[in-house]
Amino acid sequence: MTDADLIRRCHTIFPGHRARRPAELYADMAAWCEANDIEHDVYGSGDLIESFEKKIAALLGFPAAVFCISGTMAQVTALRLASTDRNRAPVALHPTSHIFVHERSNYQLLDHFDALQIGDRHRPFTAADLGAIPDRLGAVGVELPMREIGGQAPSWDELDAIKAHCKARGAHLHMDGARLWETAAGYGKSVAEIAAGFDSVYVSLYKGIGGLGGAMLAGSDDFVARAAEWFRRQGGNVIHRSPYIVAAAMQFDARLAAMPAYFKRTEFLFEALRAHPEIRVNPARPAANMLHLHLPVSRERALAIRERLAERHGVWLFNRISHGVLPDTSYFELYVGHNLLDAADEKVVEALALLAAELRTPA
Question: Residue 79: is its pLDDT beyond 90?
């Protein structure tokens, strides 16, 4: 039985949102297009995409935003421009930056910019960490929240200090806002308040929003226009962006409106986990609707526990799981979305108890 088959048989699912199969998603998109009289854009020109770009820019407090086919292309392009404008001075990034961890050395092999690692890989970096770098910096990249370390984020005061430091230093401050929509609930601030002081911001149209893919890059009019030209040079000039825009736009407002509820549900889960010291949680307090759960068993045993709980109890705990740093440990990322929001409190508590009991049982 495949994972998808098992999930469909479960009544309590922890990670993310209910997955829609292609036929269902495309039918919803078609109905939305029909109801809103949507036409295709042509190479990025069209009422739907242009109005959505303006909507994202306004939400973030920037003059302009432009669609990009992927966040990978959007971010290295933004940082390349910032570095080039400052005589190719290096870019400072956290060791767990998406650019280092998931982009196959594109910044090096495609000669985008030089990069420096800053701060401890298990904590958000600080303004003091930036101050310890003697080199001139072309740009500084900040991920909010930081996915690879459990969704941690700097305190509001520390974020302000980072903004002030970059401004005084003349370094371009860029935000990896792949999950910025989620961070707003954690900070208790609007996305415009969080983005204020940044020179550019990338946001995803598929992670928390649930679209098919794609990204937006926001900044000044000039910066966005230059970035759009570089997207074309890199092969990002697809003839119709409309499928990506429709898939995001048709549920965008509803997903943003639900973010505070996702965060509140994360806080509920965090408190429920206190009853099970076998399961270690990162971060110390939720900063967004995301947690890392660390288990005292190997990855292989964790997968076996997952299958057993799914088959016997109708509980699906996680999707992917990684090896832990210590032997016979593992951890998984939990993004709290509609699945946990819709689950009854007692079912969540019962599922955690089942997991804890399995972890206490000798292999």
Answer: yes
Q: Is 16 exposed, middle or buried (0-12, 13-18, 19+ CB in 10 A)?
A: middle
Residue type (1 letter), 174: H
Residue-wise pLDDT for 158-174, tens only, equals 999 999 999 999 999 99
Q: For residue 225, what are the CA distances in angstroms to 79, 116, 192?
A: 14, 27, 21
Sheet with strand 330-335: strands edge to edge: 280-282, 290-295, 330-335, 322-323
Q: What is the pTM of this model?
A: 0.96
DSSP 237-294: --S--HHHHHHHHHHHHHHHHHHHHHHHHHHHHHHHGGG-TTSEEESSS-SSSEEEEE
As separate numbers, helices (DSSP H) first and strands (DSSP E) second, the chain gives: 15, 13
**Token output for 340:** 């946990």
pLDDT digits (tens, 9 = 90+) for 187-243: 999 999 999 999 999 999 999 999 999 999 999 999 999 999 999 999 999 999 999
Find all residues with CB under 8 Å of 339, minimum gap 6, and list them: 13, 14, 15, 16, 17, 18
Question: Could you tell me if 116 and 92 are in contact, meaning their C-beta atoms sit under 8 angstroms apart?
Answer: yes
Compute, in degrees rounded to 10, the torsion defined by CA atoms 342, 347, 348, 353: -170
